[in-house]
From TrEMBL:
Listed name of the protein: aspartate transaminase
InterPro entries reported for this sequence: Aminotransferase_I/II_large, AspAT/PAT-like, PyrdxlP-dep_Trfase, PyrdxlP-dep_Trfase_major, PyrdxlP-dep_Trfase_small
CDD domains the UniProt entry points to: AAT_like
GO biological process: amino acid metabolic process
EC number: 2.6.1.1
Family the entry assigns: Belongs to the class-I pyridoxal-phosphate-dependent aminotransferase family.
Catalytic activity: L-aspartate + 2-oxoglutarate = oxaloacetate + L-glutamate
Keyword Ribosomal protein among record annotations: no
SUPFAM superfamilies, sorted: PLP-dependent transferases
Cofactor requirements of the protein: pyridoxal 5'-phosphate
UniProt keywords, alphabetically: Aminotransferase, Pyridoxal phosphate, Transferase
PANTHER family xrefs: ASPARTATE AMINOTRANSFERASE
Major enzyme class: transferase
Organism: Hypericibacter adhaerens
Length: 393
């Protein structure tokens, strides 16, 4: 018998990849599948970004780079953060990694161990809970509620901090709900954290540029008083339709940037060199494609929320960010998983059960509207037919 490390039995997964595999298998077998399960833009990476990577390869950028990212890229990140949030960030505090996920894994590895507690959003991105459990730390869920538009309540979060809490994780705009936390709650959290100076915060702001109805993102970077304990996670995947390039970064406080770099050296050495040049082009080039993408998402968002609310037994609160909605399906008399399976096998619609994002996701499914308006409309028609057939049966 192989003797695996105990952490391996505690490692979770991201079901979106499993649903994608099942959806692809059904499609390969000839079934018509509309994929509303996937968490990535259905747009191509803008051409000038692709060109920059090709140029980098032709120019001979084939070797290792500094482990924390090439200096021009980290300077571009710093300038972009100034443009978007009006903040000054020393490029030395920026560590570029292969995707947003790597920052969360590193942050959780840095703080998690048996005896420690880490607070994370639930429903939330599944890797938070999985990685916390892997380290042996106690994963303390922060329930996100439909009645709050799936934003967090600062009072609730603060009430869960104990002497053992080392890290809190927040994410707005959020996966899987599209929820955006109200500015007043963010302010209240920052004030409340004054009482807990030894608690670090990881703010996952990967959807910060995908916001609707005139909402402006309030980055935690704006709070100088948090700078010595804030890890701000962002990246290229969602904003620039670059999920497969594997490009992410974080602003780390003080010495943690060096520790994150050390983890990078132990793990992946550096990010693909040509992708880093593409990253510079994304941050410094025209933003029209980003604006176009957000406009298309907004149109689909309004359509899908309306269509879901017309389905009997389904209700859906408005989502103000990202490209997900999280309809309530609890009145259908099935578990979230049964709804996910029924929609995929019977109606040919891939969605993700809310429970894939934590126990507080029961009663919901995640619907990604990163698909064409035509496909979304067809999916909603199929969803309606499926409900009618079930009722008739
Ligand atoms: N954070 C959140 C909230 C996400 O939803 C995702 C991806 O779905 C990530 C981070 C990871 O992004 P990446 O693909 O850049 O690793």
């Amino acid at each position: 018998m192989l003797q695996l490390a105990s952490g391996m039995s505690r490692l979770g997964t991201e079901s979106a990849f499993e649903v994608l595999a099942r959806a692809n298998a059904l499609a390969a077998a000839g079934k018509s599948i509309i994929n509303l399960g996937i968490g990535q833009p259905d747009f191509k990476t803008p051409a000038h970004i692709v060109e920059a990577a090709i140029k980098a390869l032709k120019d001979g950028h084939h070797g290792y780079t500094p482990a924390n990212g090439i200096p021009q890229l980290r300077e571009a990140v710093s300038a972009d953060l100034h443009r978007r949030h009006g903040v000054t960030v020393d490029p030395a505090q920026v560590v570029v990694v292969p995707g947003g996920k790597v920052t969360m894994f590193f942050a959780i590895l840095m703080f998690g161990e048996p005896g420690a507690e880490i607070i994370y959003p639930n429903p939330g991105f599944p890797i938070y809970e999985s990685a916390i459990n892997f380290t042996g730390a106690k994963a303390v869920p922060l329930p996100l509620l439909e009645k709050n538009g799936f934003g967090f309540s600062a009072d609730d979060l603060l009430s869960r901090i104990t002497d053992k809490t080392r890290l809190i994780i927040i994410n707005s705009p959020a996966n899987p709900t599209g929820g955006v936390t109200a500015d007043a709650e963010v302010e209240k959290l920052v004030k409340g954290l004054e009482k807990w100076p030894n608690v670090a915060i990881m703010s996952d702001e990967i959807y910060s540029e995908i916001l609707y109805e005139g909402r402006k993102h309030l980055s935690l970077l704006r709070y100088e008083q948090l700078r010595d304990r804030l890890i701000m996670l962002d990246g290229w995947s969602k904003t620039y339709a670059m999920t497969g390039w594997r490009m992410g970064y974080a602003v780390w406080p003080g010495k943690l940037a060096e520790l994150a770099t050390r983890l990078a050296i132990n793990c992946h050495s550096c990010v693909n060199a040509s992708a880093q040049y593409a990253g510079i082009a994304a941050l410094t080039g025209p933003k029209d494609d980003v604006a176009k993408m957000c406009k298309a998402f907004d149109e689909r968002r309004r359509f899908v929320v309306d269509a879901l609310n017309k389905l009997p037994g389904v209700s859906c609160v408005d989502a103000l960010g990202a490209f997900y909605v999280f309809p309530n399906v609890s009145k259908l008399g099935m578990s979230s998983k049964q709804v996910e399976t029924g929609l995929l096998n019977d109606a040919g619609i891939a969605t993700i059960a809310g429970t894939s994002f934590g126990s507080h996701g029961e009663g919901y499914i995640r619907v990604s509207y990163a698909n064409s308006l035509e496909n979304i409309a067809e999916a909603m028609r199929r969803f309606g037919d499926w409900l009618a057939q079930r009722k008739a049966a």
